[in-house]
What we know:
- By secondary structure, this protein is an alpha/beta fold.
- It has 11 helices and 12 strands.
- It comes from Pantoea nemavictus.
- Its EC number is 1.1.1.262.
Amino acid sequence: xxxxxxxxxxxDPAGIxxxxxxxxLAQPAMxxxxxxxxxxxxxxxxxxxxxAGQRFDYEEITASADIHxxxxxxxxxxxxxxxxxxxxxxxxxxxxxxxILETLARAVELTQQGITQGVCFAPLNxxxxxxxxxxxxxxxxxxxxxxxxxxxxCEVNVVDNLWAGRATSHIPFRDIVPxxxxxxxxxxxxxxxxxxxxxxxxxxxxxxxxxxxHGGENGLFGDEEQTIIKPAMxxxxxxGIDVYGPYxxxxxxxxxxxxxxxxxxxxxxxxxxxxxxxxGFERGITVQGGLPIPIATANHGTAYNLYGxxxxxxxxxxxxxxxxxxxxxxAA
Length: 332
């Protein structure tokens, strides 16, 4: 299999992102997995290595036309970002938001051009991004706009070999039921099936969660299982997708464990994400599911309170990098 090329972004320089990048790429085995183009301000990359107390060699380039890979040696595409005022290290700021948006946009552009086959970014902060000009509720839908992608997409979380997606995401709790539909749940199930196949799982087995306590008890505690969720599962089965459930939220993980299921589709943001993060917060990955290019990151935030202290654990970001490489390999 051809080695993929990956665009890598520091995330928010005011958080632990540069430190994580330094700790992951300081490992020779990680650098050998892919041809890596780091899109970053050189000063922030160097600062991350200083904080981490770990270094790796890289070759600096100024334009994509200069790309020539040496095995195990990342390239640094030094990004001369537009708002050159000091970062508010340890805090969300407009400066960080502008930097995040510009470097991510450049990474997406490289992948659209076929120079790279995927994007891996260190943790970012939505507040900073909104301060820097983000108009969307999250980065996923901003990515879709950059890619001119108007098909269904949703955030996918991964811990170890267990994947999770959701039919509704970053909306108020009171808006969950009005936003549930047969079509939306089918789209989520189908997206999960495609994403797992892209990651190398030949026949994904997908659990679907109920919405109401005890799965609604045949309508006693709510009828969304009968009117929305089960019809959606039936349609997914007609598409050849292997689905199970719907399982009550409090017993879903037991069903996954007993039946060795690969993924869970939940009805709202925290329904299964809470269990998943308890299972392995320090190992979790987020995939921007449904997009035409693979994009992944660690399933945790910028940890502003840890900035500059060399306390950041790189395991989740390392897992994200490994998974992104695996997904990018299919496009290489």
